Amino acid sequence: xxxxxxxxxxxxxxxxxxxxxxxxxxxxxxxxxxxxxxxxxxxxxxxxxxxxxxxxxxxxxxxxxxxxxxxxxxxxxx
Length: 78
Hints:
The chain has helices at 17-27, 59-70; strands spanning 2-6, 8-11, 43-46. By secondary structure, the protein is α+β, with helices and mostly antiparallel strands.
């Protein structure tokens, strides 16, 4: 399974991939046009098999796992 960094962390349960996520975010019609996102960069990491015990499945673990996956200074795609 993949996780994508687009300022937010997206768990790709439906396997949309980077372009699918970008298109969904940019082409969704938000109520009253409250958001108008333009995706500038997408970073991807393989997070292994998803299970109920996955670190990203627990709010208390998300920040540490996010930092482990993407790091503070990480700018490159995998």
